[in-house]
Amino acid sequence: MTFFKNMLRDEEGATAIEYGLIAALIAVAAITALQGVGNELNTTFNKVSEQLSNANT
């Protein structure tokens, strides 16, 4: 019975879960931001490629 009482008072697991949720939130935000940057880079490289092709002809 003492084991279960100690287990209910222990907050280390809750802290680990909170840190896990924070890490997951940061990961989702980073993925979203990097996808936007990737799309912008793709657009920029396509414009440069098009301009170089036009300048070459």
Automatic annotation (TrEMBL):
Keywords of the record: Membrane, Transmembrane, Transmembrane helix
Entries under Pfam families matching the protein: Flp_Fap
InterPro entries with a match to the protein in the record: Flp_Fap
UniProt entry tagged with the keyword Membrane: yes
Transmembrane parts of this sequence: 16-37
Protein name: Flp family type IVb pilin
Species the sequence originates in: Alteraurantiacibacter aquimixticola
